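Write out this protein's structure.
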Amino acid sequence: MFKKIKNILDDNVFNNVKQEVCSNEFPWFYTSNSASPKEDTNKNKNFSFYHTTLNEGNPNSFFNEKTKEIAEIMKKKFKLDNYTITRLRWGMTTNSNKKIINEPHIDMKAKHMVILYYLNESDGNTYFYDNDTQIINSNEPEENSAILFDGSLKHSSSKPYMYDRRIVLNINLQNHNTFKKE
């Protein structure tokens, strides 16, 4: 279902990225729903924070070059040479003091692959679903690990309840041939 690589970045690169993303100066943006842009009712427990560095192939952050460098490392390790990185999005969910699973979703309608890179040790699994939105598998976050899966597979994050926060880099990739046709 998915392929996982532990310790995907060497220690120096990993420590540098973690120090910057986990710093108090790193800019995070609030979204009322982790999986979709639904109206904020102030009762929504699915809120999270994000920092998109590349969207639809267009850079839009000071942190894009560094994020793209680590995404390229992961792309090579997963042997995705025929793929183009189309979106890079850091996501952070914070402690909820109870288990909350966010809404199942796919990241984009076009055919794509997803790499989820877990920056920190945390609870807050990623869940995978069948077409009827029944959980069929899950992945526990492990610091400096990444998983690869087909982007047509519905998935969702969940909030940590034992750790302060869960930080993930979401990398969306499209096959060069598919990407050029659309």
